Amino acid sequence: MTDNFDTEKARASAWFRELRDQIVASFEGLEDSHDTGPLRDAAPGRFEVTETKRTSDDGSDAGGGLMSVMRGGRVFEKIGVNVSTVYGTLGERAQNAMAARKGIPGMKDDPRFWASGISLVAHMQNPHCPAVHMNTRMFWTPHAWWFGGGSDLNPCIEYGEDTQHFHNTQKQHLDPHGAAHYPRLKEWADEYFYIPHRNRARGVGGIFMDDHNTGNWETDFALTQDIGRAFLPAFVPLVEKRRVRDWSEADKEAQLVHRGLYAEYNLVYDRGTKFGLETGHDANAVLMSLPPLAKWI
Fold this sequence. Notes:
seven-stranded antiparallel β-sheet; 39% helix; alpha+beta; two-stranded antiparallel ribbon; 27% strand
């Protein structure tokens, strides 16, 4: 059995909100600074922020969060940055949809849970700018707790130097926690973000972990924080470099087809999507990862 972890829960929830605020400010700054290249004369995009609420079967409060979505910006065609803290009890279907630790001893007798995290997916206007995904989270039950998360890059037009920068930045943030973390989390991302029915990865990888619990909450929280801190320096320089490039109809076609691949993965395989829907979270928030336009050929 774990204790209630009230202090740890509060710290984790506050950190995910702080990271959300940093990302939202950074991305609105990218919109404001885009004064060269395609769509430079369009109005800079802004996030629409909606409070999400979740209720238990008996109508009692079960937490919620903030859904922040930008549509039709100069740089971002659609991006969602969600943060939430939810709690309640897990039904059988929700337990089966858990991303980690199925069949926890004692869960059926005491199915209480608490979960908090940040989730981000960005679809870009310019096909030369890569799409990206990031999330970090903490999960607690009376019987176990763990962290999870990571980020991965999803270009429709790959630039090797961009892929290298993305991975190098993540490695720099993970190495202080131990040299074994980056190769392990990179391999995990390669396995997780793979689309079996297409026999290919959905992007160029990144880092990913789930069910992370060394027994030392402070150590594991620090690692999770640095996974989050790695995101902006890994991604923003790529956007700044590529957003000024002109694109062709063929480039846009490649982007739309690649987005179809992304949608297939999130709807068929992504465990976070399944868990969010099974636990009754706001469907619009859960499905904000889907692209605004996509194409299948």
